[in-house]
């Protein structure tokens, strides 16, 4: 079983891997032998517990910076790539009534256009390796709620659909495209959800009676990035403590 989670000799890119879910996923891959490149906006690299992670700064909300970013992050068109995790994200607090065009455009650029463009760039690299894995991070907002994170919910719904459509054409090339839809996970961005009163209110909606930890999303990612998911294509794996099924 351990060999199924051995990523020795594999190269992965994780976007938005400076903190939170992305950092947990990058670390999980590196701890199991993968060479990982983290792409994130901040120019200052964070501390990683392993030297197997390399940092590349790029603002993926900007089309000009997305151009050729896969090759630039890897160090050349001839470099190997086996796994792409499209995780970079953010969200506004808005509704359909209050969402501005600027918020809509920014959300679309980072949450949807970047996923499409980086995946498209990655395909030739993955084909040269005889196949690979693309994992998109969606959200439970694609299925439930999301009314107060309007543009985020819309774009994450589109990510789930794009995952299915990409899988339909790439499965024949041994490229698995799947997504993960996390519930509320403990990160810097969700700190207010873990404050005592808010936490009690939220977990009443969760059959697991708790919210999630970044490592639990990393575990789901390891399944989709590894050999155990070789016959899994176009799926969105919901990891939310039972929230969407409640």
Biggest sheet statistics: 7 strands, parallel
The span between the termini is: 32 Å
CATH architecture: 3-Layer(aba) Sandwich
Number of strands: 7
Q: Outline, from the CA principal axes?
A: globular
CATH topology: Rossmann fold
SS element count, helices: 7
What is this structure's SSE topology?
Blueprint: E1 11-15, H1 20-31, E2 35-40, E3 53-57, H2 63-66, H3 69-74, E4 83-86, H4 101-128, E5 132-137, H5 150-170, E6 175-182, H6 196-203, H7 214-225, E7 236-239
Parallel strand pairs: 1-2, 1-4, 2-3, 4-5, 5-6, 6-7
Helix pairs in contact: 1-7, 4-5
Describe this structure in words.
With 246 residues, the protein is an alpha/beta fold. It has a single domain, classed as 3-Layer(aba) Sandwich (Rossmann fold). Helices cover 37% and strands 15% of the residues. The protein is built from 7 helices and 7 strands, in the order βαββααβαβαβααβ. The chain has a 7-stranded parallel β-sheet with strand order 3-2-1-4-5-6-7, sandwiched between helices. Strand 5 (132-137), helix 5 (150-170) and strand 6 (175-182) form a beta-alpha-beta unit. Helix 1 (20-31) packs across helix 7 (214-225) and helix 4 (101-128) packs parallel to helix 5 (150-170). The protein is globular. The two termini are 32 Å apart. The model has no long low-confidence stretch (mean pLDDT 95).
What are the defining features of this structure?
246 residues; alpha/beta; Rossmann fold; 7-stranded parallel beta sheet; 7 helices; 7 strands; globular
